[in-house]
C-alpha cells in the first residue's frame, strides 16, 4: 500500500489528465472512500475483525462505561488522547490509527514530535495502553485516555 506522501506525490506530478485521474481513483477505491465512512463504522469493523467488544475496550482503557460507548458510537467528540487510547486498546496498526485520527478530526501522528514518536513506537511494538502510559509517564509526557481533557 502506498503512503499518503506517495499518493500526494502521484497527484502532484503523475496525474496529468482526467483518464489518469480515473485510474488513480479506481486504484485507491479498493481502500474505501474515507469521505463516506464514519469513525463509528470504521472502528466497529476493526473491533469485529479483532473479536473485541466495546466492553473489552472499556476495560482496556479504564474509561467510564457510558463515556466510552458515547465515543465508540459517535455520540460525543473524541479528543486526540482518547482516540489514541481507543486505538491502542483495540491493538490497531499504525495505518488504522492514522485513519481513526483523521475520521475524528484529530491531528495525525507526527514523528518529529517527541510525544508522538513515543506513541508511534508503542503502536508499532503493540504495547498495551498501560505500557504506553508508563512509557509516557517515564518521559514526563501527558498520558492517554484521560477523561479530564474532554472539551
Can you tell me about this structure?
This protein has 151 residues and is mostly helical. Helix content is 61%, strand content 0%. The protein has nine helices and no strands. The chain has helices spanning 4-14, 18-29, 39-50, 54-61, 65-72, 80-89, 94-103, 114-124, 129-138. Helix 4 crosses helix 5, helix 6 (80-89) packs antiparallel against helix 7 (94-103) and helix 8 (114-124) runs antiparallel to helix 9 (129-138). It is globular. It starts with a helix and ends in a 13-residue tail after the last helix. The mean pLDDT is 85.
Key terms:
globular; single chain; 151 residues; mainly alpha
Rg is 17 Å
The percent range for helix content is 55-70%
Distance between termini? 35 Å
| Form type | globular
User: How many strand elements?
Assistant: 0
Strand residues, percent: under 5%
The largest β sheet comes out as: none
Given the helix and strand composition, which structural class is it?
mainly alpha
Order of helices and strands: HHHHHHHHH
Average pLDDT reading: 85
Would you identify the regions where 5 or more consecutive residues have pLDDT less than 50?
A: none
Number of helices: 9
Amino acid at each position: 500500500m502506498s503512503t499518503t506522501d506517495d499518493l500526494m506525490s502521484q497527484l502532484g506530478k503523475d496525474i496529468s489528465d482526467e483518464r489518469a485521474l480515473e485510474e488513480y481513483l479506481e486504484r485507491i477505491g479498493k481502500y474505501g472512500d474515507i469521505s463516506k465512512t464514519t469513525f463509528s463504522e470504521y472502528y466497529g469493523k476493526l473491533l469485529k475483525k479483532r473479536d473485541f467488544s466495546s466492553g473489552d475496550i472499556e476495560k482496556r482503557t479504564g474509561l467510564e462505561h457510558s463515556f466510552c460507548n458515547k465515543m465508540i458510537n459517535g455520540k460525543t467528540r473524541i479528543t486526540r488522547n482518547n482516540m489514541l487510547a481507543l486505538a491502542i486498546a483495540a491493538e490497531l496498526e499504525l495505518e488504522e490509527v492514522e485513519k481513526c485520527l483523521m475520521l475524528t478530526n484529530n491531528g495525525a501522528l507526527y514523528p518529529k514530535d517527541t510525544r508522538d514518536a513515543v506513541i508511534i513506537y508503542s503502536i508499532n511494538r503493540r504495547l498495551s495502553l498501560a505500557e504506553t502510559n508508563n512509557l509516557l509517564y517515564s518521559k514526563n509526557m501527558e498520558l492517554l485516555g484521560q477523561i479530564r481533557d474532554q472539551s
